[in-house]
Amino acid sequence: MNYPTRDKIAEFILLKLKDNEEVLKKHFDHTSQGIGYFYIDDLLPEDLSKAIFKKFPLTKEVKVKKSLREYKYVAAQMNKYDPLLEEVIYAFQDPKIVDFIAEICGYANVKPDENLYAGGISMMGKGNYLNPHLDNSHDKDVKLWRVLNLLYYVTPDWIGDNGGNLELWPEGLKGDPITINSRFNRLVVMATHKTSWHSVSKVVEDQVRCCISNYYFSSNPTDSKGDFHVTTFRGRPGQFFRDKILKLDSSLRMGVRKIFKKGIRENPHVYKKEDSE
User: Fold this and answer.
1) Is 155:229 a contact under the CB 8 Å cutoff?
2) What CATH fold (topology level) applies to the domain 6-259?
3) pLDDT tens digits, one per residue of 81-122
4) How far apart are CA 175 and CA 49, in angstroms?
5) CB 271 within 8 A of CB 77
6) Mind spelling out the 3-state secondary structure of 198-231?
7) Helix and strand totals (H; E) in the chain
8) Per-domain residue ranges for the chain?
């Protein structure tokens, strides 16, 4: 079967965004006092979105990340997997898409990340989770601010009761989270800044939730008080001891980054396009 190229996929995305432009702008603006976000359903033709899901690798074919912080499966070296996945990822990096989403959010000088630093694909099966955290404030070279997180979900018939849903904490971890279900063919766009705490609820069904991930960066932070920080994890409300450990862990990693700006070693979660293996 011949699948559309990234240019055609970008056309689908742009048309859907344009058809809902005013609603998306209002929603992002309304929520921007906390964590600005919007989501849009039925982003791509249904048969295309199902085909994308079918092209995801098995969990054993990608990297597992398992710790007190998180438990999930990720991949960024996209030339190891079906070409359709790479086409979809980079469709979100089409200049027309980047500029239009930036306009919806009211951001300037926004750029995509061809290196897929912490982006690419992710999968979460039964028992997987992502504790509350702030994303790293910068790109891999510590030159640009991370400003937007794009999450496109493609698991058919996924329901909220399965878990694996995005949680936003606009009032911090002492408030209640906003849950955004990881519904099939749904795109979520959220702001990333020093208070954009978010998490993913534990998956409770024996199914795999699949997601296409992209980050956008800018020479301007999303607020006037932008501060450098590493990816910072916390415990959920009620996880007292885990919270203490994760706070210490974040402090130690932040201390290292004050000395070694890019870290002691290169983050392996990037797309090295010269790697053809």
Assistant:
1) no
2) Jelly Rolls (2.60.120)
3) 999 999 999 999 999 999 999 999 999 999 999 999 999 999
4) 35
5) yes
6) EEECCCCCCCCEEEEEEEEEECCCCCCCCCCCCC
7) 6, 13
8) 6-259
